[in-house]
Amino acid sequence: MAQLVKLLDYISRYENDLTRYPNQFLRLKKYQWNRMKIQWENGKYEAVENDLIDEEEYKPKGTLSSLLNFFKGNQKEAEEELQNDVEDEDEGFDFNPNIIYQPNSPEQLRKLYLDQLFHFQIKWASSTLTDKSQVAPKYLRDSLLRSFLQELPDSYLLFYEPIIKLQKAPVELDIILLTPVECMCITVVEAEDLAVFSYESNRFWVKRIGEQEVKVLNPLISLNRMTKIIAQLFKEKGIEFPIRKYLISRNGYIDYPLGGYDLELIDRRSYEDWFDSIKKMSTPLKFTQFRAAQTILDVGQTTARSRLLENTGELSDEEMDEV
């Protein structure tokens, strides 16, 4: 499953420590999947007994920053970070998937597990131990977000419609998918099934559905702007990381003969093949990928409220924290 690093302007656990939470997510996912399989194989609907779990699989193994400090010779600092990781291991680890019905096959069990993990990822991308953002219900029903998170590799870091601050002004972006080898800037054009999106001018395209034609804003405006912003952020930090642009329509057609060397058009004729191809990558997380993700997080806008005050029934300036 791809990791949801940032969703809109919601507070994210990855903002606290990007080098730590990806590793925790991987351990958590493996541990809880093994626990759920044991439940299923033993015909149990309640929580599995502790003696059925290999606790060694879940003991903290340190963070990337701890390892880097160790190899740099900062052994004391590495030990302190590792101890903090052990002490904070319970933070956010309240994901306990349950068998709410009896699956008939491992495939059905996996789907049940992934659906519950999807909701947990949304929670991780909208809350921390002390703060919480209000999630729009549409994201829980977003089929594209769900497919990205459930089907893409663990080493993919996803920014979904993030809002960033440039010169103190909020800027809404589309989708940024950081793979270990490239930054994928993605704009999605979807409407009714079989709609055709055709180039008309630099400002407008035409959406055709049967005999009906409607002008729509050129989607490349948003895509090109997002790509330029990300390229500039990387340049300022000295990050060399390939950036490619993707214009996607899962249920329609894109008619844009001009194309471009750095632009890939994906519509219903090619979407499944393209998606299958990016699902097959087995490359682990890379250091440059972490740097690229951190650079975007550093300019991200965050809107959240304190968990301690969320039950008061009142909102004040102190409850809303815009970073």
Descriptors:
323 residues, 8 helices, disordered C terminus, 6-stranded mixed beta sheet
Write down the secondary-structure element order. EHHHHEHEEEEEEEEHEEEHHEE
What is the typical, i.e. mean, pLDDT? 83
Backbone shape: globular
How large a portion of the residues is in β-strands, by DSSP E?
15-25%
Helix content: 25-40%
How many runs of DSSP E, i.e. beta strands? 15
Structural class of the secondary structure composition? alpha/beta
Number of helices: 8
Radius of gyration: 22 Å
Strand order of the largest sheet: 1-3-6-7-11-13
Provide the low-confidence segments as ranges.
46-72, 81-92, 313-323
Main sheet makeup: 6 strands, mixed
Q: What does it look like?
A:
With 323 residues, the chain is an alpha/beta fold. Helix content is 34%, strand content 20%. It has helices at 21-41, 64-71, 75-87, 106-124, 143-151, 219-236, 271-279, 287-298; strands spanning 3-7, 131-132, 157-160, 163-166, 169-172, 175-178, 183-188, 196-199, 204-209, 212-217, 243-248, 253-255, 263-266, 303-306, 320-322. The protein has a six-stranded mixed sheet with strand order 1-3-6-7-11-13, sandwiched between helices. A four-stranded mixed sheet has the order 10-9-8-12, with no helix packed on it. Helix 2 (64-71) runs antiparallel to helix 3. The chain starts with a strand and ends with a strand.
